[in-house]
TrEMBL record:
SHSP domain boundaries: 23-138
Pfam family, one: HSP20
Protein species of origin: Halorubrum californiense DSM 19288
Protein name: HSP20 type chaperone
PROSITE patterns linked: SHSP
């Protein structure tokens, strides 16, 4: 009887792992959730970026499009085995600013907040460049 129980547990664990990996791949194909805000002086793009460190974020601004690529890693916990690997590790997203946006990459900044959002601020006035990412201190 215990052999049957162990076989069932093994089969269930195998199914959960496959479903989890599939769900992670779905997350990686789906763009990051975003908000686009505008003030008199700048545009602010807010991306959901949970579980990411500043050095694992790449922000690019080109032709009124803000592109973000994130690489996050799974922490290992002593005494625990990963059963359901459901979080995607390579995430990306982009936002197109309005066609009439006159913005400049000079002075653009990106801040990774402690609550897992990435704020990308682009001043108004024209151009293209990479954007530096700053991580909030605890």
């Amino acid at each position: 009887m215990s052999r049957l129980v162990e076989t069932g547990r093994s089969a269930l664990r195998n199914v959960l792992e496959r479903v989890g990996r599939g769900w992670g791949r779905v997350q990686e194909r789906r763009p990051l959730s975003t908000d686009l805000l505008e003030s008199d002086d700048a545009y602010l793009v807010v991306f959901d970026a949970p579980g990411v460190r500043g050095e694992d974020v790449d922000v690019t601004f080109l032709d009124r499009t803000v592109e973000v690529n994130l690489e996050r890693f799974r922490d290992f916990y002593d005494g625990y085995d990963l059963v359901f690997p459901g979080r995607g590790v390579s995430l990306s997203g982009s936002v197109d600013l309005p066609q009439d946006a006159d913005v400049t990459p000079e002075g653009a900044n990106a801040t990774l907040t402690r609550n897992g959002t990435l704020h990308v601020e682009i001043p108004k006035r024209g151009g293209s460049a990479d954007v530096d990412v700053v991580e909030e201190d605890d």
